[in-house]
């Protein structure tokens, strides 16, 4: 087979692209977006400013940021017939299943870059710097980021049987999202709508969490977006594929799995028995381990601090005692140390979302919303690559039966 070999299980050591978006050094716990350390961005930037940086490669000027912000917020609302789409789901549908389908639904609307020749033509022109094609691509990106929060909020409220609300202007992206999630609509209460203002500490905490989750180079979901995008469907369909990949408990679903794990452990005194079960492979230690980080996930230190700020407002979650006991015991245990397992971004984020009052199955949705930015940044980078878009079509090593003749049914035993 012309010297083919399986590229290490799970692409363990395979680079599929060259990228200038995000840099990770797994041995030293380094994460940089377009060269800027994640610690500086989390401390000093905002989610939409980081979004601009990831997509366009530079920190925006004041006017660039306000244009980007107003475009994204302008594209937030969605046609009212999307309500029918969400009402078609069963009352207890998982919000990630709804969101995955909703991105594909968006593609049915905004398919101006759908897999038609015009779509290919659009990308080719954009790659050559055609201003109209680039503007068209930007509009797709504004829609994707702007509507990600709207779709997420619809998936959240539909299960509570609540009307959808459109946020007022003048709020930040994250505050608008919190408004869409929590604002009491007129039908929610007898006394008429109250003016809802997100809590500043919680809005800031969510904005930092969005910065930390915005991109992470070739993780499973970003790779899925590019694999799908390489055959040139509309970008919403490629993002729907990425959303499905992130849903899994080995990836973005881990933040929900961590809380379920902590609840099942119950209290710090049960941690030793739980870790023994993990060593026997009877249980999984969710929120620990990472394909790339072999010392520590730099995001987990930042998130840990955000957790304390959130708990100061919401009250301390007793589940933190079990989380801390598990964290400390695993970091001292030879089994985990020898396998270089440390807490990852998902170990603490679920505790924050729980303290903020989100239902557990909504936690992966709170990972998708910011990660849409990383997905579209990589998608745009691929679409504009000077060498053009090449469909991703890997090979395999065939290990099945060699050639054999058909046996008619009556002759089969
Ligand atoms: C995210 O890729 C990204 O960048 C992802 C992400 C992003 O921002 O996009 O960072 C977000 O998805 C973080 C990861 C969230 N997932 C979890 O927390 C789920 C629990 N973690 C494991 O499933 C695992 O650590 C993975 C999936 C994260 C990584 O798996 P790998 O790289 O395939 O590692 P591995 O399975 O080869 O593990 C090496 C060894 C194995 O032991 P041996 O078989 O060699 O004896 O470590 C063991 C594994 O069994 N191991 C674990 C473990 N993770 C790995 N053992 C117990 N508990 C764990 N969590």
Could you explain how this protein is built, in words?
By secondary structure, this protein is mainly α. The chain has 18 helices and three strands. The protein has a three-stranded antiparallel beta sheet. Strand 2 and strand 3 form a beta hairpin. Helix 2 runs parallel beside helix 9, helix 2 packs parallel to helix 18 and helix 12 crosses helix 17. The longest helix has 28 residues. The protein is globular and about 75 Å long. It starts with 21 loop residues before the first strand and ends in a 30-residue tail after the last helix. The structure holds s-citryldethia Coenzyme A. Pathway: Carbohydrate metabolism. Keywords: Transferase, Tricarboxylic acid cycle.
Write a concise keyword list for the protein shown above.
413 residues; 2% strand; 3 strands; binds s-citryldethia Coenzyme A; 3-stranded antiparallel β-sheet; 55% helix; Citrate synthase; tricarboxylic acid cycle; acyltransferase activity, acyl groups converted into alkyl on transfer
- Please tally the β strands and state the result: 3
Strands across the major sheet, in which order?
A: 1-2-3
N-to-C span: 35 Å
Dominant shape:
globular
In short:
This is Citrate synthase. With 413 residues, the protein is mostly helical.
